[in-house]
Amino acid sequence: MFHKILVANRGEIAVRIIRTCREMGIDTVAVFSTADRDSLHAQFATEAYCIGGPASKDSYLNMQAIMTVALETGCEAIHPGYGMLAENPYFADMVNQVGLKFIGPSGDTIRALGDKSNARLLMSEANVSVPPGSNGVLQDETQALAVAEQIGYPVLLKASAGGGGRGMRLVERSEDMVRLYYEAMLEAETAFGDNSLYIEKLIENPKHIEFQVLVDQAGNAIHLGDRDCSWQRRRQKVIEETPCPILSDEQRKSMGEAAIRAIKAVNYEGAGTVEFVLAEDGNFYFIEINTRIQVEHPITEMVTGIDIVREQIRIAQGGNLLLTQADVKINGHAFECRINAEKPSDNFRASPGVIDDFIMPGGRSVRIDSAIYPGCKISHHYDSMIVKVIVHGNRRSDAIRRMRRSLEETIINGIDTNIGLLYVSLFDQDMIRGSYNTSTLESHMDEILKYEKIFRISENQDFEIITGN
Amino acid sequence: MKESFDIRREQLKESGKYTKLRSPTKKKKISEKIFTQCPGCKQYIYDKILKENLYVCPDCGKCLRIGTKTRFELTLDPSYELIDELAVFQDPIQFAGYQKKWENNQKKAGVDEAITFARGTIKGEPVIVGVMDCNFMMGSMGSIVGDRIIKAFAKATREKLPVIIFTASGGARMQEAIISLMQMRYVSEAVGKFQKAGGLYITVLTDPTTGGVTASFASLGNIILAEPNALIAFAGPRVIEETIQQKLPKGFQRAEHLLEHGFVDSIVLRKNLKNTLSLLLKMHNPKQTEVDLTQISGRFSKKLIKKMTNEAEVDPDKQVISFDRVLKARDPKRITPRQVLKYLCDDIFELSGDRLYADDPTICAGIARLGGLPITFVYTKKGKDLKSQIKLHFGMPHPEGYRKARRLMQEAENFGRPILTIIDTPGAYPGLESENRGMGEAIAQNLRFMSGLTVPTIAIITGEAGSGGAIALACTDKLFMLENAIYTILSPEGFATILWKDSAKVEEASEQMKLTAHDMVELEVCDQVFPDDLTGLKEALAQTFNELIKEKQMRNERNQWELN
Ligand SMILES: [Zn+2]
Description:
The structure holds two protein chains of two kinds.
Chain A: E1 4-7, H1 11-24, E2 27-33, H2 40-44, E3 47-52, H3 63-72, E4 77-79, H4 89-97, E5 101-102, H5 107-114, H6 116-125, H7 141-151, E6 155-159, E7 169-171, H8 174-192, E8 197-201, E9 207-215, E10 221-233, E11 236-242, H9 249-264, E12 270-278, E13 284-290, H10 297-304, H11 308-316, E14 333-340, E15 342-343, E16 349-350, E17 353-354, E18 357-359, E19 366-370, E20 377-378, E21 385-393, H12 396-409, E22 411-413, H13 419-425, H14 429-433, H15 440-443, H16 445-451, H17 463-467
Parallel strand pairs in A: 1-2, 1-4, 2-3, 4-5
Antiparallel strand pairs in A: 6-7, 6-8, 9-10, 9-12, 10-11, 11-14, 12-13, 14-21, 15-16, 17-20, 18-22, 19-21
Helix pairs in contact in A: 4-5, 7-8, 12-13
Chain B: H1 2-15, E1 35-37, E2 44-46, H2 47-52, H3 68-75, E3 81-82, H4 98-109, E4 115-122, E5 125-132, H5 143-159, E6 163-169, H6 177-196, E7 201-209, H7 211-214, E8 223-226, H8 237-244, H9 255-260, E9 266-267, H10 270-283, H11 302-310, H12 322-330, H13 337-344, E10 345-351, E11 363-370, E12 373-380, H14 386-391, H15 399-415, E13 419-425, H16 432-436, H17 439-451, E14 457-466, H18 467-474, E15 478-482, E16 486-488, H19 492-500, H20 506-513, H21 517-522, E17 528-530, H22 537-563
Parallel strand pairs in B: 5-6, 6-7, 7-8, 8-9, 12-13, 13-14, 14-15, 14-16, 15-17
Antiparallel strand pairs in B: 1-2, 3-4, 4-5, 10-11, 11-12
Helix pairs in contact in B: 5-6, 15-17, 17-18, 19-20
The complex binds zinc ion.
Residues 38, 40-41, 43, 57, 59-60, 62 of chain B line the site of zinc ion.
């Protein structure tokens, strides 16, 4: 049993982890940067230590400083949260090397899955369908042309070491291939120090569907259902829900089984997420495995009643899964809205500053995960996501109404936020039908931006128009 | 907010419900070292990351010092064998405590002396590699180090293998006093014999290379490479500061400083070192003896094609006068020697420095492949924009440029490599410093030296070839010119001023001087003229080189016969 865990993160996820630890009777050690001295995670933890300057690389990414605190305070494990060092294989290696427990899979597993072309190969071998494309890394532009010819344009050139769209190029015609091949190679080299590329068929207008999985150290694996994260802007998730409104029972079953095959193929441990795209023709393809807790994990917790952070810690301690797949019951429907400190009408410019007022929603089946409070400062050094509003409903329509109601109650003054955009999104016809895909939000953006100002002071004249919906 | 929490925490503590006081958690101690502090930026780096980054700091790029075994593993293909005899302790001046220290250092460093030699291959190219180890008595050179170097060169001579030595040393070993100093003489002699026998010797200067090692075998490589930011010095910085009672400038005695001052050929990142060494070894161990035309890609860069196709159409009826060609030859948008080199050659590796004073960036030289055959190239640079033009003195070289060219042409002669020079220069730089450093002497030496070369040589004039500064690179077996290139004894403006006291008569002067490529053919100065788009150049170059190679071979054989 762990007695003390270091939480190597900040913001809402650090608070989220500390809360569960507290409930489990585990002491927590928080680390914070000089900019986060008054932040909530540093207050909630049993102990808190400053580890460096405001820039993440000086503090939350400073492995040596974090490790020193963990050793000095006698921690037994480190929870990395998401982002920061969560998917850094060296950090996992280092924590395990000194005899502490990294809460998550081994460095080697993270490394194997971080190499995207390698992950593709692993999945094909495990009989999990991947988008048509190259077998492993491309040798040269001639091979890229040959593979693209075979699978048909449009295709995506992707960096093997990649992520976040860097080193990625959409190639629509063979004439553009050579130029874009070298562009992508150069970008990958600069971003990751590795210029290997692979090619994948572009699945147009897909749904992004992911499965939450849990794997114990004995290798038992279950999934906790799916999440539909297709309401995206520039590959950033904005609203997530579970279960996916358009999956048939049959599709859900076969995707869930594929997720289990996928996770079992990579010597996994802990909580993870297997991501798929669902094409318009109903075929689904493996995209990647995220080896960390996800931002949107609370919606799964809402419908399953399972505390995923608690399971992460139990598994890290060597505990076996207490549930079998048959025990996992999906109850009702849940939504999450991500409130960001940004100004949608000004090209989503980040909006750091001081929060004057913060009134959070409440009531039945509403959950707020956040680390903000009146008077706290939102720093430009960190992620702009500041509040997650999560609601549950017996039916999908109940959940949508509950979410609308919750956003109506939410007041954040002092900075700009996207609350209006989230609210208006919940009236979008494709959202209501559940028929949206990863490009829907962007294609409806002009319309949505017309109304998103509703919650801004003295800008709410259009409010009536849309509530007539 | 913080106060509220602090109060709440106290309240909870008092009520005994917040923290059940467990036995206090103990600080965890770890036996293993998992971090290394970068001596450059002082950051701590996780050892596993450092190892994967070849012991180069990922934050600041500092090359950390590495031990012998690691260096061998980073450099050689996996199966290599150590070739030294067992080190037997020697104490020439009976220095108190030396033996104990020597034995302790063997344990500490994991090597039996400050240098270790191995025979192996680098990407398949056979080689003998020596590595000095700073962890063993600061890598100092005593009699065993000297002995090992001499034996390694003797072995390399017998087995016809190239030698690479990675230097890292505090200098001569004080515990062996004058016997250490003598090693400098012995090892230099060994290097000399080896090079005279035709051996290739490459040194890689790593941090720190100082004292008697710098002043002997480290500075004698046919090619001298260095790791970034390595300290390379004869007198240590502290000794100098104490002597001159001044603080030394930042970067003094670092590899980059030495490159600028002409003592290092190239600074190579550790991650590129193995590839670079294998390329250089391959260049000195050619698999073919003549230029294979089919291997010349003859591909222009996209940028150049665009530039050429944008060129204005010339009115075919307009009479072209010589001055038009002067203007064309001087056009800053014209194809540059570097572009011609890239059009013709692959595997271009630039070498720097005159080993005397400086590296002149206006003259570039190095080794490349022309149709698969290794050649030595020399070309001039003018610069594209005003900033680079000023840095390059508008294409006018200094004496050190000609001396660099001569040094590298001597290497070409030693290793039997043909030489290609590509010229576009208004002339040698007229200035105080260039005169002080002997511009006339530098040119004269080149003329005599190039005329006596036994390897085939070809020069191509692509733009201007001004006077002594041009002929110092154009004393070749054959001279090619592009159609709109010019070759002059001085600028037409200067010509007009001297003869007619009127620089405005430049058009007339251009005509009178006979300076165009076609004039040069008539005057039997130039052998062949090519259009500015290089049509026919690669074919002619391949053919001419191959003819010269055969012809010179025959001549050399005859000379040898005469000598006998
Ligand atoms: Zn550093």
